[in-house]
Amino acid sequence: PYTGPSKEEVIALRKKYLSPAMFWHFREPVMITEGKMQYLFDEKGRRYLDAFAGIVTVSVGHCHPEVVAAVDRQNSLLQHTTTIYLNNEIAEYAKELADKMPGDLKVVYFVNSGSEANDMALMLARAYTGNYDMITLRNGYHGMSPETMGLCGQHTWKQPIPQGFGVRHAMNPDPYRGPFGNDGQKYAADVADLIAGATSGQVAGFIAETIQGVGGAVQLADGYLPAVHKLVREHGGVCIADEVQTGFGRTGSAFWGFQNAGVMPDIVTMAKGIGNGLPLAAVVTTPEIAASLAKRIHFNTFGGNPVCSAGGRAVLRVIEREGIQQNAAAVGSHLLSRLRALQQKHDLIGDVRGRGLMLGLELVKDRATKAPATAELGEVFERMKDMGVLMGKGGLYGNVFRIKPPMCITRQDADFLVDVMDHAMSTL
Ligand code: PMP
């Protein structure tokens, strides 16, 4: 049993010594002291079904035994040296990760967070093309470094500081709220307008999530990505897929989210699920693009350190051996159909969307006006927590449930989640 400081003591420590810009999820904060696969345990030993996976980070399960064993083994053998010496772990890991990529995406940079990965991707795009304007999407999220904060398209994450430069935010191709519905071509025309009206005509590139995560599991309108990739390349740019949330089989139907859209990016960024909780992230690109930064040294002290590499390799093995992607597809489609059925019952549910275990449920006060039901979501969210399910939330208006559990979740867990949601909504 847990024997550390009480919840009240931890709250006091946090208030005094940690950032005042931190937030907690529930009215009464939940304290988590243990995790096992798809479940979390609080300081009193109470179990919760984790439907948010540490914000889409725990991919194969909390403390998965094989990942723990790989990290433990490496931890006592060699923790760290940096890439000034050779080590097999980072080299073998780079090959194993590159083997998961299609086409010519074969050069890997290891870093420590999604923000760093996207910073690196921007640097590559600009160095390779010699241009600086970046096109990205409103409602997107790409990180908290000053550069990536500039890419974010939501006020929530904007600090009053200079952010990035040359970033142009295009209209979000949101099938539910966007003015053109699910017509990707019409939204792509906005990118053409943006390039013509706000840039020199030559751009460094385009970056987007393949399903928006923080923005509320928004799937980009049909045909949008192929059209925009073509357009951006015609204007000298490269295309970046931010797979920080959608990668590693989470969408079920593909290992990488961009494969669902039928596009082939030039640069792919990944974090979160890559390490199942370890501070690990990566950028993968082509040898040609990578060559653009080879005139000088590029260095990252912890990127790809032996412990994280050993853990990342174990994550790839587990995904393969346990059929994690197939499970995301099977449980995800069961969950999606049960949530669609729930939508028939509760008018509060305006939209149900997503793929695999990257799902969103948008709550509205009125299906015609689509007025965000933010307070109602907060209430359902609290009640679900009290019944043992920790949900995610997001979207520009905070009215979207984000359901992105560890991908080892079972059909029974999915049924439990929907039954709990049904009960919480029925008693609202
Ligand atoms: N890209 C996406 C799509 C993300 O969801 C996040 C984190 N929420 C990031 C980048 C930034 O990752 P990190 O917090 O590890 O810097």
Could you explain the architecture of this structure?
The protein has 2 domains: 7-60 and 324-426, Alpha-Beta Complex (Aspartate Aminotransferase, domain 1), CATH 3.90.1150.10; 65-321, Type I PLP-dependent aspartate aminotransferase-like (Major domain) (Aspartate Aminotransferase, domain 2). The protein contains 14 helices and 17 strands. The model has no long low-confidence stretch (mean pLDDT 97). A hairpin with a 2-residue loop joins strand 13 and strand 14. The strands form 4 sheets. Strands 4-12-11-10-7-5-6 form a 7-stranded mixed β-sheet, sandwiched between helices. It has helices spanning 7-17, 53-56, 65-77, 88-98, 114-129, 146-149, 184-198, 224-234, 257-260, 287-290, 306-321, 324-345, 374-386, 411-426, and strands spanning 32-36, 39-42, 47-50, 107-111, 134-137, 167-170, 205-209, 211-212, 218-219, 238-242, 267-270, 281-285, 349-355, 358-363, 389-390, 392-394, 400-403. By secondary structure, it is of the alpha/beta class. The protein is globular. The structure holds 4'-deoxy-4'-aminopyridoxal-5'-phosphate (PMP). 4'-deoxy-4'-aminopyridoxal-5'-phosphate (PMP) binds at residues 55, 113-115, 118, 141-144, 209, 213-214, 242, 244-245, 271. InterPro entries: Aminotrans_3 (IPR005814), Aminotrans_3_PPA_site (IPR049704), PyrdxlP-dep_Trfase (IPR015424), PyrdxlP-dep_Trfase_major (IPR015421), PyrdxlP-dep_Trfase_small (IPR015422). Belongs to the class-III pyridoxal-phosphate-dependent aminotransferase family.
